[in-house]
Amino acid sequence: MDSFDVSIDHARNLVRVTTIGELFQADGEKIITIARTTAAELGYNALYDVRQSVTNIPIVEWFQLPRSLEVFKETKTRRIKAAVLISPNDAIDIYKFYETVMYNLRLKLRVFFNEDEALEWLTNNSSADL
C-alpha cells in the first residue's frame, strides 16, 4: 500500500481512514484492526475512504476476513458501525459481496459512493441499521 491516514473527527464521533494506492490483504487487516480498535476505545463509528485505492484481495478472503481477523472476535469492536466509501470505478460487486457477508454476520457495514450519505448513515442511531 502506498499510504493510509487515520484521523479522529470528534464532532462526528468518527474514526476516518483514508487510503491511497494498492491495497492487499495484509493492508486491509491492519487498517481494519487499527480503525475498529480506535473506534471501540472512543465509542465512535468508522469511515473507510478507499476511493483513491485499488483493492487486490481475492474474493474468498472477503468472506473469511470477518470470521478470522482477531478484531472481529471482540464484542466491543464487533459493535462498530462502519461505512466504506468507494469510487464507481471500484470492484463494486466485491464490495457489495463484503457488505452482504458482514450483514449475515450481524456486523454493521455499508458501502457508499457518496460521502454525505455515508456520514448520514453513520450518525443515524436507528435500530434498523442492519
Question: Strand order across the biggest sheet?
Answer: 1-2-3-4-5
What percent of residues adopt helix (DSSP H or I)? 40-55%
The ordered string of helix (H) and strand (E) elements is EEHEHHEHEH
What class, by secondary structure content? alpha/beta
| Proportion of beta-strand residues | 25-35%
Low-confidence stretches: none
What would the average pLDDT be, to the nearest integer? 91
Could you give a short account of the major beta sheet? 5 strands, mixed
- List the total number of helices: 5
Distance between the termini: 30 Å
Rg (CA only): 13 Å
* Dominant shape: globular
Number of strands: 5
Write the layout of secondary structure elements.
Elements: E1 3-9, E2 14-23, H1 25-42, E3 45-55, H2 59-68, H3 75-78, E4 82-85, H4 92-104, E5 109-112, H5 115-123
Parallel strand pairs: 2-3, 3-4, 4-5
Antiparallel strand pairs: 1-2
Helix pairs in contact: 2-4
Description:
- There is one protein chain.
- This protein is an alpha/beta fold.
- It has 5 helices and 5 strands, in the order ββαβααβαβα.
- The protein has a 5-stranded mixed sheet with strand order 1-2-3-4-5, with helices on both faces.
- The longest helix is centred in the first third of the chain and has 18 residues, at about 25-40.
